[in-house]
Amino acid sequence: MSEAHPITVAMILAAARQELAAAGIADARGDARHLVAGILGWSLGDLVLKDQEVLSPEALERIERALVRRHAREPVYRILGSRNFYGLELALSTETLEPRPDTELVVDALLPYLKRQAAEKGTVRVLDLGTGTGAIALALLNECAEARALATDISEGALQTARENARRNGLSDRFATCHSDWFDAIEGRFDMIVSNPPYIERGMIGELEPEVRLHDPARALDGGVDGLDCYRIIAAGAEACLEPDGYVGLEIGFDQKQTVTDLFEDAGFKRIEALRDHAGQDRVLIFKTKQA
Length: 292
Fold this sequence. Notes:
9 strands, Rossmann fold, seven-stranded mixed beta sheet, alpha/beta, 40% helix
């Protein structure tokens, strides 16, 4: 670029959209807008209001580097380093799954139960198994001031990311972490157990979109041969860590509603709610113990 040929925001957006479309990116327009806005530190509305603003050489270089990465199918929010989840800005890392909008439904589903418990007890404890970025636990804490959370993960790198996300969102005082393989290092009882565990069938991982297959950590995806390994562990261990009136809330794969329900019913739980995502696919299950 030279001063004789300035590049405006509108021009770079058009070029980025064309480049991503030519690379086969499905939502080329949306990705171009989010990348440019994120790199400039702008809102999407700013792209309209400031579309004739001339970009500096440094800004152009950063945008061009981001487009190269997106062209190689690296997800937009991994390029930007963070994404919004339930009103919180969460940092991502190579050790964490990128939280998806569907997972916000887990928070939507559990909040009424958590707030009811908080009203009755004064304080409530949440155990988030396989926390990753901390997304579910932190969103629950942000919406329920009486809640405290213990977030576990087998990855110390993931726990570091979760702690940083708690700090940047002002939730560190009610958020603790524990390096644990599911329940192995957990003590005490909780009012709610939540998890978005790995649930992809091992043989299907190679067929996932490259944005997922190449950039999400494999152990955050691999649910074993039938995709149910982690649900078996949670079903077997949940009651020992749950208060008598506690809840278990889970994200599931689109075809796992009945099989996961069967696992938990065999372990002494009853399903009290099942929710579908915005595409109409089964996505969230909530359980209580049968005697509760």
